Amino acid sequence: MRGVLPARPGAPDRSPRLGDLPEPVAGRGEVLLEVHATALNRADLLQARGRYDPPPGESPVPGLEAAGVIGALGEGVEGWRRGDRAMALLAGGGQAERVAVPAAQLLPIPETLSFEQAAALPEAAVTSWVNLVEEGALVAGEEVLITGATSGVGTFAVQLARELGGRVVVAGRDEERLRPLLELGARAAVRLDDMLPGVVRGATGGQGADLALDLVGGRWLPAVLESLAPGGRCVLVGLVAGRRAELDLGLLLSRRLRLVGSVLRSRSREEKARLVAAFAAYGLPRLADGRLRPVIAATYPLEGIAEAYADLERGGRNGKLVIRVARG
Ligand SMILES: NC(=O)c1ccc[n+]([C@@H]2O[C@H](COP(=O)([O-])OP(=O)(O)OC[C@H]3O[C@@H](n4cnc5c(N)ncnc54)[C@H](OP(=O)(O)O)[C@@H]3O)[C@@H](O)[C@H]2O)c1
């Protein structure tokens, strides 16, 4: 089958290349998904550079999410039939014509959504869910700051936080591109700069944010922590702005702040199954009626994968980059 070749360690050219891959086989508890669309994630850029290997035992082919039709069922799979439309949260393997997926990491695609729309959802939705609901323990009425809100994850997290009753403030580098996030339910959009703490306090009636979902980290983490109200929590989910920061630890003590680091991909299959089920119960009805929706910046054919990766790296767009996988 055709798909994106696994990264070769030390290879000089890091742009993704299409080629022939071995056919995946659905093992016990897995299904074979005929992929109609997949979507890109920041992690794909790191994986292409050999800096983010898949968890042991998972496919070395890139692709953390896909949507398509179930082509075959492995042993012991119940509740799914051949021909069902499904979207999948993956530890790898989505950027190919077929992928073997644990059945418990599938969600049915609501009738109102296309394969392209569905492919843009699993990673953003489950990342948003685990970090807002479980790690962040968001309570209705709380002030929520989301940095890197223009991203694929951010554009979904804003909507989910709003649905959960959060009062959302978004932060990013480009004020123009923050504006559409107000239509997704953010109450205020602020620039990610050194003025952030004061501006966030101004936007939250003087108190600061109860919860921050930080998708950028690095040099912005101190300002994000400074933006928190006493007793506030920060869930650090991304490091696009860097892996190092100098923190005033006195601030953590005096304001009784909590800083949590979180990653989805390396969690066990059992934990992913639990998270997918928890999101499905809450999110599927809201996806079906449009209260939650994927935000797609651009769609490419599988043959345009190198251009799509280059666009992901360049940035400057809101939402997800989706890859269409044509069926023969
Ligand atoms: N921990 C996990 O389990 C997990 C799972 C999924 C994603 N993530 C992380 O979540 C973040 C979003 O992922 P994605 O795939 O949705 O990303 P994406 O769509 O590629 O968006 C990247 C985002 O990062 C911002 N950004 C890029 N460079 C920046 C810099 N130097 N300083 C400040 N902001 C910068 C961009 O903001 P502009 O609009 O200003 O360009 C944009 O909002 C990434 O950090 C990713 O690694 C983590």
3D architecture notes:
- Strands 3, 4, 5, 6, 7, 14 and 15 form a 7-stranded mixed sheet that branches.
- By secondary structure, the chain is of the alpha/beta class.
- 49% of the residues are buried.
- It has helices at 42-48, 115-119, 122-135, 152-163, 175-178, 180-183, 196-203, 221-226, 249-254, 269-288, 305-314; strands at 2-4, 18-20, 30-39, 65-73, 85-89, 98-102, 106-108, 143-147, 167-172, 188-191, 209-214, 228-236, 258-261, 296-301, 320-324.
- NADP nicotinamide-adenine-dinucleotide phosphate binds at residues 41-43, 123, 127, 148, 150-154, 172-174, 177, 192, 215-216, 237-241, 262-264, 312, 315.
Topology:
Blueprint (H helix, E strand, L loop, with lengths): L1 E3 L13 E3 L9 E10 L2 H7 L16 E9 L11 E5 L8 E5 L3 E3 L6 H5 L2 H14 L7 E5 L4 H12 L3 E6 L2 H4 L1 H4 L4 E4 L4 H8 L5 E6 L6 H6 L1 E9 L12 H6 L3 E4 L7 H20 L7 E6 L3 H10 L5 E5 L4
Parallel strand pairs: 8-9, 8-11, 9-10, 11-12, 12-13, 14-15
Antiparallel strand pairs: 1-2, 3-4, 3-6, 3-15, 4-5, 5-7
Helix pairs in contact: 3-4, 3-10
The structure holds NADP nicotinamide-adenine-dinucleotide phosphate.
NADP nicotinamide-adenine-dinucleotide phosphate (NAP) binds next to helix 1, helix 3 and helix 4.
Question: What is the structure about, briefly put?
Answer:
The chain is α/β, with parallel strands linked by helices. The radius of gyration is 19 Å and the shape is globular.
